[in-house]
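Succinate-semialdehyde dehydrogenase (NAD(P)(+)): structure tokens wanted.
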Amino acid sequence: MASKLELNDLIRRDNFIDGKWVAAASGKRFGVTNPATGEVIADVADSSEADARAAADAAARAFPAWRDALPRDRAAVLHRWHDLIMENANALGRLISLEQGKPFAEGRGEVLYGASYVKWFADEATRIYGDIIPQQQRGKRMTAVKEPVGIVAAITPWNFPLAMIARKIAPALAAGCTVVGKPAEDTPLTALALVLLAQEAGVPPGVLNLITASRENAVPAVAAWLHDSRVRKITFTGSTPVGKYLARESAETLKKLSLELGGNAPFIVFDDADLDAAVTGLLASKFRNGGQTCVSPNRVYVQSGVYEKFGDMLAKRVAALKVAPATDPDAQIGPMINARAIDKIARHVDDAVAQGARILAGGKRLDALGPNYYAPTVLLDATPQMQLSCEETFGPIVPLFRFDDEAEAIRSANDTPFGLASYFYSQDIRRIDRVSRGLEAGIVGINEGALASEAAPFGGVKESGYGREGSKYGLDDYLSIRYLCQGCLE
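Answer:
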């Protein structure tokens, strides 16, 4: 197979199990649609428990040899995979745009972002160190070694169909684990393309297995892994209710869990902030992928002294954003993922307006463009009683809340069961220290709206989950520690 492929060459429609492309055991299939048009792009395997068990069987057979492979050999496979992803960045970017809807520039950017995790963990594969424990008794040597946990089940969302699965598979393979995976039903094609490139890179049969399933069959298919004692870890990105379900259902076999769950991120603008920088940072953090990211600011708190000015500055910039299909080279925001997403956005805006919010920009569906478009929106006079205050909107809506002092801002920002990301803008170094310590979040942006990096630990606190992805800490979630005590040495 040529290393550089066209978009159609990347599209696969079947499951990948034990190094082979196979249809679902039931023969059933479901359609994947383009959110920009509602047209069906392809039909893929609609898997069941039987397919999930077959994937786990293959992963179990492959685990001993992959676990025992030299770290540098695992690293070499991952480096080849990274190179293939980079060589096919344009085609992968177009595929992301096709099935997820984000503009091509963002789709290609996601490819580069996801590839960075593959490269990072390829390097980290050779740096899995243990410890020699200082001698406590004569004649005894104590050591701690790190070992792969075993089979990992990776379950990923639709908003970043390449990056999310890459940053789960890469550390698992680097650690010596084998993988069974299921991408979101809205965006399976990108994940299947990524696995195709992994196959070409030389990932051995059974080491990486991927099944696809419709919304109706996803729960029973994943349940097969939750109750399988051979599957030792679940890594999931998605909603908090689903994360809690996975934790409950996997408790019987005491699996290790990494859960990157919902957010309700605050963005605080103090009156001493650089307002131009704050507007730019908010645009970067909020409108990436049309606001469909778990770290998008959902509540924007602006201090009274700059509230009206900031709102006007923001509204001008937001009104200028171009909403268009991903095929438009000038598109900055594409369609939302589906009708359910659009309905939730409209419901939040309507509820806010009914309770007194003022629309400074947007505030309407853009049906002339297609079925799933909504105008980027700025709302003034938001209050905690509005639905958008306590529910994650997951769309291009910016509600502005007014606050008077620092203590009120921190209290309001933390008044949520979630704690994934928080942002604030201030030029007061003392305030920066106080607010950084006061915010309850796993990720804090200080005068910065773009936070993600393969070198940084990504994850939340409270009901936003636990475990970390990326960085040197991200590998630990795929490893267990074995303590060895050797006696009779004297």
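Residues 7-261+464-483 form a domain with the Aldehyde Dehydrogenase; Chain A, domain 1 fold (CATH 3.40.605.10). The first strand starts at residue 15 and ends at 17.

Cheers.
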